[in-house]
Structures are given as C-alpha cells and as structure tokens.
C-alpha cells in the first residue's frame, strides 16, 4: 500500500515531457538573461506566438516555456524559403533563490519577457570578494 | 526559424578561430607578411520567405521586438526591396548580463524580386514580430487570361 502511494505521488509530480504530436517543428528560442538586485529577467524571441498560446510551467526547479505558433497561411507559390516555422520550446534551470510563485510573464511583438523576482533574503545580496 | 540571421551553428567557433588567426597574423606580421583584417562581427540580415501569386509578391521576415515605425521598407528601381531596422537593448542600472543570444544592432536586407513591382501598391503589416509585405506586380507582369470563344 505504502509503495503504491509513493508511486502515485511520484507520478503526479513527474514533469510532463511528452513529444509533440503535431507535425510542426519545434525550435529553441534565442534568449537574453540579465540580473538586477531584485530579479532575474529572461527575454525570449518567439515571433508569431500569441500570449494565449504560450505555456509556462515551473516544476522541480525547471522553468519550461512552450510557445505554440500557428502555421502560416501559405500565400501563393514559394519562391524562396530561407527559414522554417514552428513552435518554440526551451527549459531553464532556476536558482533556488527565486520566488517562483511570483514569476510573471508578458508577450509583446513576438518577445516574451519573464520576470523572476528573487526571494526577499536574496535581494541586493553582495558577493564579497576577498583578496588572499 | 531564423530570427534576424540564419542560425550559424559554428558562429562562435568561427569568431574564436578568426581571433586566433588574427593573433597568428599579428605574430607573423613582423616577417614581411601584412596582417589581414578578419571581420569580427557578422552582418545581421533577416532571413525571408518570398512567395507569389498571379497579382502579388509576398515577403515575410521575423523581426521580434520591432515596431512598424522602426522599420524602413523601400522599393528602389523596379524590383529591389530593402528592409532596414534597428534593435537595441538597454540594460537597467545595476543589472548585469548572464546570457545574450538575441541579435542586436542595425540590420538590413536587400533582395531582387523576379518581376517589376507597382510602386504605388505596397502594404506592410507586423503581427507578433512577423513582418509581411504585400506588393502588387506591375500590370504588365500579371498573367492575362485569354478567352477562347467557340464559334
């Protein structure tokens, strides 16, 4: 009995990492990350993704961004196709000093911005460099 | 996917190599060979998808973070389409970068279209970082349907 309960808990918390079943490509979006005294900011290029189609999950210290991009309406006959389109997916490991319950996200002009506030105790923490 | 450049898997390696070559060049420049200048930064130009139907040519590029006012789209001559833009990031005060993968700076791309365009009919729209330009072909380039009459 105890065993099955344990298994059940594990299954429930296991992150879902299914393979997409749609016949779309999935790309790793380019990202800029910077840190201020209060937060860590991630900016991801996800052209073509709408805010409603972006799924952001935080599980076991991993932050996963999955942006669904609808296939383009094909306009006429292609003369040149220099890039392919598809979804964007990327996972980041998040430091334990982030207050993950307060993570916020917004998407504008194809750029997804995530604000990861630091825990109160980690704010403005200075790293002292000692000279030998 | 290509945001502003084609993905260059060895872009960073090339940069390292070019730096290494420059160092080697300067090392040997004392022996009578002039040091060659190697480009350090790659020019950024957006990748495009071009398509056509009977009356229009469509051009698409991914320009995330751009506003339509910041883009400069021109047609010169009869069929040269140029897209120019600029993307800059300002780091807030007391902030520091951890990672920078998104291209920044000026980008420009000129393509030669296969047919002449009607300069008065160009529409550009920007949706969620995707620029779509719809250009009407010059009337003389459009296919004409010839009716066959049965006597």
How many helices of chain A? The count is 1
Low-confidence stretches of chain A: 1-16
Mean pLDDT over the full residue set of chain B: 78
> In terms of structural class, how would the helical and strand content of chain A be classed?
mainly beta
Give the uncertain stretches of chain B in residue-range form.
28-43
Provide the residue-averaged pLDDT of chain A: 79
Largest interface: A-B, 39 and 42 residues
Number of strands of chain A: 9
* Sheet having the most strands of chain B: 4 strands, antiparallel
Tertiary shape of chain B: elongated
**Alpha-beta classification of chain B:** mainly beta
Description:
The complex is a heterodimer of chains A (132) and B (151). Chain A contains 1 helix and 9 strands. With 132 residues, chain A is mostly beta strands. In chain A, the strands form 2 sheets. A 4-stranded mixed β-sheet of chain A has the order 1-7-5-4, with no helix packed on it. In chain B, a hairpin with a 2-residue loop joins strand 7 and strand 8 (130-137). Chain B has a 4-stranded antiparallel β-sheet, with no helix packed on it. A 3-stranded antiparallel β-sheet of chain B has the order 3-4-6, with no helix packed on it. Chain B has 1 helix and 8 strands; from the N terminus they run αββββββββ. The model of chain B is unreliable at 28-43 (pLDDT under 50). The longest helix of chain B has 18 residues, at 11-28. Chain B has one helix spanning 11-28, and strands at 48-52, 56-62, 72-76, 80-87, 96-100, 105-112, 117-127, 130-137. Chain B is elongated, with a radius of gyration of 22 Å. Chain B is mostly beta strands. Chains A and B meet through strand 2, strand 3 and strand 6 of A and strand 1, strand 2 and strand 5 of B. Strand 2 (31-35) of chain A pairs antiparallel with strand 5 (96-100) of chain B, so a sheet runs across the interface.
